[in-house]
Write a structure and sequence with these properties.
Blueprint: H1 7-15, E1 17-22, H2 39-48, E2 52-56, H3 60-74, E3 79-82, H4 102-108, H5 112-132, E4 137-138, H6 163-179, E5 185-189, H7 210-217, H8 219-226, E6 231-234, H9 252-262, E7 268-270, H10 277-280, H11 285-295, E8 300-301, H12 306-319, H13 324-342, H14 362-372, E9 374-376, H15 380-385, E10 395-401, H16 415-422, E11 425-430, H17 448-451, E12 456-462, H18 477-486, E13 490-497, H19 499-505, E14 515-518, H20 523-532, H21 538-545
Parallel strand pairs: 1-2, 1-8, 2-3, 3-4, 5-6, 6-7, 10-11, 10-12, 12-13, 13-14
Antiparallel strand pairs: 9-14
Length: 546
């Protein structure tokens, strides 16, 4: 018969866990019940002493109510966080939804000071929105240097492709975020930018020397630490030069020696989610948790089973595998971070006021969209005025999505649908659920018979995303564009997301063909981009272009 857990040790163990919950109030509203705890279990864990909750889903106003509910259940100061790397509106409707950070990395090459100013405003906006919605910890900035265009999971989430640029922009973001009284988190240590696989699906290997890490991967983390970032998140990847056996999340050589000793970081070390396949495929919930704490982590994010994790920590304390002194130090770092938030300038909003939670910064949203847009060729309007036969008559609005099931940027009123429709283009969706438009011909991959007749506006919504395993670079878009051009049917090109696809397709385009790129995929980016191409309709685009 199992011995009952000592309450004091059980509470200490629980304090080091961050569990996943829906931002919605009711159980039936959960979008990912596999990972999001039901309210009864969530309340029990918070009463037990769990130290943090990561939230996803809901509107910003409902999130404010949810955070208030969770704090009430906990009865103690609680870390409430979210992955809002692109503004709180990226995950919670009604707040500011900003273009992805890589857009500012590209802008830095044209106007460094403007990019830095916007990065600091980006952080301040994110922190302000987070505080209003009841969050006190933002899991950003991404400090990975995206120097590998084939990276399937970082991509536009990074702040650039050069270490110095990423270091400057992430430090500016941290200053803005912390100025709003909210904690930040530099991730994914020691760098997930130069990988061609996704740690949500498998364990990537970074086969670089220590000298290379110092030159490329580490400078942004050093800059974030110097800027006072409160937390650093580990990456689930293997660095043989530092530890040939264990991934960074479970490696004392990475967390205790490199991060703590060599980089001098004194804040919170948090793991990436332990439910990710790079970890969960090899270790159970309890063992993975203990290994992470042994390695030097302070907080364990999303163990596969919180109860197993707590039991394993207490057992490791009893056996001497983990020291109570170490775990008490981790708990104290958590409390110190929360005290930093409590006394910060953003404190009044941290309780979460649903009346003020959804007040997006529209001017910043619009300026970021405008400053990061890239355009070439002519416009749809001028081509139509010159009676270009490719533009006349009804045609097709061909849209490629990462996934039709996860496309919050494309509601029925999205400008990418309504503006082409006003120009006589019928929508045709090309996604994983509609494979009939593809055919196994490397020179002509589109099935034009299935596509229908008329000019084609091609809109590609492709970017790096967790769990997808690709950012669209492996799809035959150069051949597809060449095919449409051969048949005289390509009338315009819009790319939202990956800049690498934009760079690959530009050389294929005639000089006069209307074409543009935006790192953002949200409706505001669609309205501005299509407006620049001449597909403007004030009645449809008013809400996004003013």
């Amino acid at each position: 018969m199992a011995r009952p857990l000592e309450p004091e040790l059980q509470r200490l163990a629980a304090e080091l866990l961050v569990v996943r919950a829906s931002g919605h109030l009711a159980d039936h509203q959960r979008r990912y019940p596999r990972w999001e705890l039901a309210n009864a279990e969530l309340q029990a864990l918070l009463e037990l002493g769990v130290g943090g909750v990561i939230l996803l889903g809901a509107g910003a106003a409902e999130l404010a109510l949810r955070c208030r509910q969770l704090r009430g259940w906990a009865g103690q100061p609680l870390l409430l966080c979210a992955d809002v790397e692109e503004g709180v509106g990226q995950r919670f409707e009604g707040a500011s939804w900003l273009v992805p950070p890589l857009g500012l990395g590209r802008l830095h090459g044209r106007d460094p000071q403007l990019a830095l100013d916007l990065a600091e405003r980006y952080g301040r906006c994110t922190g302000r929105d987070a505080a209003r919605a009841g969050l006190n910890w933002v899991l950003a900035p991404v400090c990975d240097v995206n120097n590998n265009p084939a990276n399937p999971v970082i991509n536009v989430r990074a702040w650039g492709e050069e270490p110095a640029v990423v270091a400057e922009l992430t430090a500016a973001f941290c200053r803005g975020l912390q100025g709003a009284g909210v904690l930040g988190c530099a991730k994914h240590f020691p760098g997930h930018g130069d990988t061609s696989s996704d740690s949500h699906l498998e364990l990537p290997v970074l086969p670089h020397s220590r000298e290379r890490l110092e030159a490329i991967e580490l400078p942004p983390f050093r800059a974030a630490i110097a800027a006072g970032v409160a937390a650093v998140m580990s990456a689930h990847l293997l660095l043989p030069v530092l530890d040939p056996e264990r991934p960074a999340t479970l490696s004392s050589a990475v967390l205790s020696q490199l991060l703590r000793r060599d980089l001098g970081f004194r804040g919170l070390v948090v793991t990436d989610a332990l439910v990710m396949e790079a970890i969960s495929r090899h270790h159970g919930a309890g063992e993975a948790t203990v290994l992470a704490l042994e390695a030097g982590a302070d907080l364990v994010l999303m163990p596969a089973d919180a109860h197993q994790a707590i039991e394993a920590i207490v057992a490791a304390l009893a056996s001497g595998r983990l020291s109570r002194q170490q775990l008490e130090a981790s708990a104290e770092r958590r409390r110190a971070a929360l005290e930093q938030v409590r006394t910060g300038r953003g404190d009044p909003g941290l309780k979460g006021d649903p009346l003020t939670a959804a007040q997006p910064d529209r001017p910043l949203e619009q300026e970021l969209v405008e400053r990061t847009l890239e355009q070439r060729g002519g416009s749809w309007a001028s081509a139509k005025a010159s009676a270009d036969p490719a533009i006349l008559g009804p045609g097709v609005n061909l849209l490629r999505l990462d996934s039709a099931l996860q496309a919050p940027f494309l509601p029925p009123t999205a400008p990418a649908l309504t503006l082409p429709a006003a120009a006589g283009l019928r929508p045709c969706l090309l996604d994983d659920l509609h494979p009939s438009l593809w055919r196994p011909d490397p020179q002509a991959p589109l099935n034009l018979d299935q596509l229908g007749e008329g000019p084609v506006l091609l809109q590609l919504f492709l970017r790096g995303n967790p769990f997808r395993g690709s950012a669209g670079g492996d799809e035959p878009w150069p051949a597809a564009v060449a095919q449409l051009l051969r048949h005289g049917r390509l009338a315009g090109l819009a790319i939202y997301g990956s800049p690498y696809l934009w760079e690959a397709l530009q050389p294929l385009l005639p000089e006069t063909l209307p074409a543009a790129y935006s790192p953002g995929q949200m409706p505001r980016a669609q309205a501005w981009l299509l407006g620049r191409l001449g597909l403007a309709d004030r009645s449809a685009g008013q809400a996004f272009t003013d």
